[in-house]
Amino acid sequence: MPTVTDVVFCIDYTSSIMSYFNQIRTMILAICTMALTNQNGVRISIIKFQSHGDDWATRVYGFTQDLNAINQMLTNENPDGVSPDGYEAVEFNTIFDISGDALREALNVQWRLNNNNDLIFNEKLVILITDGAPNGLFTPLNGADPWIISNEFHRENITLVVVGVAESINECDDFYCALAQNTGGEYIPLVNAEDILQNVIQGVINEETTFHQCFRHVMMEEIEENSSFKYSYMKDRVIGMINECRTMDDIRKLFFNHRLSTY
């Protein structure tokens, strides 16, 4: 059965991540170039999000197959209003990390639907790139609940990958691991993300398989290589979150109890 693929990049655009942004931009462009070259069935969307009281909160760029347009989306650091890129600014009044709101925007983009009559299968992937804890993990929730959004992804057959940037992510990499695995995806440190994601997306495009199937074949050693991420240290907590938690309130209690037990 032929496969068409929609990929959405949700990119943390706060000041703390900017020192890594050239690396992030290079990774995204390499993945998009591989995915779009000679492939008419692939579309890419970009969502940028900020936090901590910045002037804008999320910017949503519609699906495109134009590499030049994607490059412009990633280069344009401070757009105002609606530009020729085709983004739409969505304003929030918040001082918290809003990756949950960005994931809600990703849930609501114009995904292609499966059409059984045409025998075409649509694969959907969201790649969240961030360096910090989400709203609702260490503070009361103020905005969209990323755990509930993750469950919605699962119901809509949208696979989530979280790319962790910098050492600051270590305080919550187990949460992001659970968030991604809850949808059939994975948490991947930035240092390994480009190669793994290129291989997975290429597998979906060329082998007519699913993202869930491809991620099941990614070895944890590949994900952990050259990073401080160690899945064996957190495996029980990840499984506990997936099996026991329904909202960020449940997740926050689990984190609180874990920290008490380690003191």
UniProtKB/TrEMBL annotation:
Listed CDD domains: vWFA
Entry-linked Pfam families: VWA
SUPFAM superfamilies reported for this sequence: vWA-like
Domain VWFA: 6-204
Domain of life: Eukaryota
Entry's transmembrane regions: none
Name under which the protein is recorded: VWFA domain-containing protein
